[in-house]
């Protein structure tokens, strides 16, 4: 089986980018080991700190963030990084062509129940000159590479450098990622949706109506029965979408008027949107292609609807209708 390094070579990926991706992959092997040791390594549970988003940091959020930061500081390919667990950007080197955004531990509420977690990466070109937060505010379509690692029964890496999506499985004996799917393709149609249903009463009318129609199954306008899954780790849900199709959404809600969206654009939505599009799927806010959004802040949040192309289109049709004359749901 082909290794990650061999695959990058075959794709003729620029050597500096290859080196960076191999470093990120290597760090994820170390994270995978930390995650696997769980309580034995004393890494479970929460810290007393909060991140910039006001969320209590888990010990592993902090540990994995430090691991990635240290690995990137030892690199000469990266100018600066932006992380979910850092209030501001962190400059890591004077030379280098890249900026990296990451969510070091996605789905961290799953860690204490020994369920799926992951890491998400996005690589952007570094502009010339001084680096500031502004340098990161590039559209998702500018990403040079995007990847996630899923720490599940096996550890898997999904990667795109703009040449489709490849899936690698970690050989735990050798610490090497081996190519196990060279061209991921998301089926266009699906009968599976993923949404946190407990927020139903807080959604906008289009999402309320769309999900209500899915729940009606064969007797509803869709004339088809749908199943539901929710892993509470975007990496896990997106991996299922890449593996067998589906629609995944964390839509706009008015639960907390100051926070109408949950997922973060720069290190959750953008990298996942690139992976999904590269695998033949679609990713939208309901009103705009995610990869076309002009970011305004590194920690900005966004509504996400992604997955099987025809199902995302079906959901988007609901967003084009006018609900103003209808009674409130
Ligand atoms: O707990 P909820 O509201 O279901 O939200 C789950 C969502 O939150 C996230 O866990 C956010 O990620 P973090 O754990 O990195 O903060 C997503 O991965 C997931 O889709
Ligand atoms: Mg996350
Ligand atoms: Mg996280």
> How many structural domains in the coordinates?
2
For the record, the CATH class of the largest domain is: Alpha Beta
CATH architecture classification name of the largest domain: 2-Layer Sandwich
CATH topology heading of the largest domain: Fructose-1,6-Bisphosphatase, Chain A, domain 1
Category from helices, strands and their pairing: alpha+beta
3D architecture notes:
- This protein is α+β, with helices and mostly antiparallel strands.
- Helices cover 29% and strands 24% of the residues.
- It is built from eight helices and 17 strands.
- The protein is globular.
- One magnesium ion is lined by residues 103, 106, 234, 268.
Keywords:
8 helices, alpha+beta, binds 1,6-di-O-phosphono-beta-D-fructofuranose, globular, 329 residues, 8-stranded mixed β-sheet, 5-stranded mixed β-sheet, binds magnesium ion, D-Maltodextrin-Binding Protein, domain 2, Fructose-1,6-Bisphosphatase, Chain A, domain 1, 2 domains, 24% strand
Give a quick summary of the entry:
This protein has 329 residues and is α+β, with helices and mostly antiparallel strands. 29% of the residues lie in helices and 24% in strands.
List the helices and strands and how they pair.
Blueprint: H1 4-10, H2 15-37, E1 46-50, E2 56-58, H3 59-73, E3 78-83, E4 90-91, E5 98-106, E6 117-125, H4 133-136, E7 145-151, E8 155-160, E9 166-171, E10 176-181, E11 192-194, H5 205-215, E12 227-228, H6 234-244, E13 247-250, E14 263-264, H7 265-278, E15 282-284, E16 301-302, E17 304-307, H8 309-320
Parallel strand pairs: 3-5, 11-12, 11-13
Antiparallel strand pairs: 1-2, 3-4, 5-6, 6-7, 7-8, 8-9, 9-10, 13-17, 14-16, 15-17
Helix pairs in contact: 2-3, 5-8
One magnesium ion is lined by residues 103, 106, 234, 268.
Domain Fructose-1-6-bisphosphatase class I N-terminal: 6-182
Subcellular location: Cytoplasm
Domain Fructose-1-6-bisphosphatase class 1 C-terminal: 186-319
